[in-house]
Amino acid sequence: MKKSFTLIEKAVVCLLPCILLTCLCANAQNITVATSGTMGLGAANKISDASNINMKGGTLRTGSGAGFSETVGTLTLSDNSTITLGTGSHNLNFAASNAASWTGGKVLTVTGWQGAYDGTAGTSGKIFTGSSAELSAGKLAQIRFTNPGNGSTYTATQLGTGEFVPLAVALPIELLSFKAKLKNSVVELHWQTATEINNDYFVIERSVDGKVWESMDTIKGAGNSSNVLNYANNDDNPLSGTSYYRLKQVDFDKNFSYSDIAVVNFEGFKIIDLFPNPSDGNFNIVIQSSVEASVDLKIYNAIGQILKSETKQVSKGVNHIQNHFEGPTGKYFISAKTSDGTYYDYKFILKN
Description:
The chain is mainly β. The chain is built from 2 helices and 29 strands. It starts with a strand and ends with a strand.
């Protein structure tokens, strides 16, 4: 029978030979290492070999000293998490995990790894998934090794034995975050780097469908830095509807890579109803706006002459504006235009 175990404590939980481990050993578990939690191994081979591990924001530690070997089920990555290896010779063996669910954009950081940062096997604690090079390139790109000697960060490759190890080439930047947020009628873009190596510049790109991208702006990088750096830029004219944003990071040697995609929904501004229509001259305009703005309302006749013009203030959300117009029976058009140039037209009929 498969059971579930979620680690939610902020304190360290040591898996010692005890009642808990007797249970874990006897039955397959779904073990979740949750946010701010630490699961530390206190002895070797105390978890059922069929127990699947879900890294969901916490830390899995193989031991406070030399470390203990353990064989478990598949490895799932649901949130940014850490595996910390002990200092001695031991193996952390996961089952083949390429079919397991890994949340895109989340990072599994490995600390305590010992060996050369050149794509070769470790000399002490080792991590395996299966017994072959079975992880996809996408999953390997979500694994990070940090070299305490120089502060550089490396993505992973997988050997034919199933061990995943750091690649020989350090990442040009360690991107901590990239966020896009709608504020009033502007999309604010913020990103943060932990380290930068040979980083020439960033290109901010935008897309309406997540497939075809346009360059919006270029921001100079720091070149080389081991300090946390913050960057910011704005999209002053966001597109109506859903927009996608990403960073293109370019090295001095013109190699480049992309960040995860940030999504913003800018509903913009539109007239969603006008009633009654036809009208005797008294009518209500219902305007939906994603920002606070001033709105110029104009009424035109069929040949384009402006017959009435006024300015109204609308708030974020749905606005009901009462209006009155006198004129001959016929067809008219109302145009609503915001201060940032967004406009919307609506047709109505006046009857006497």
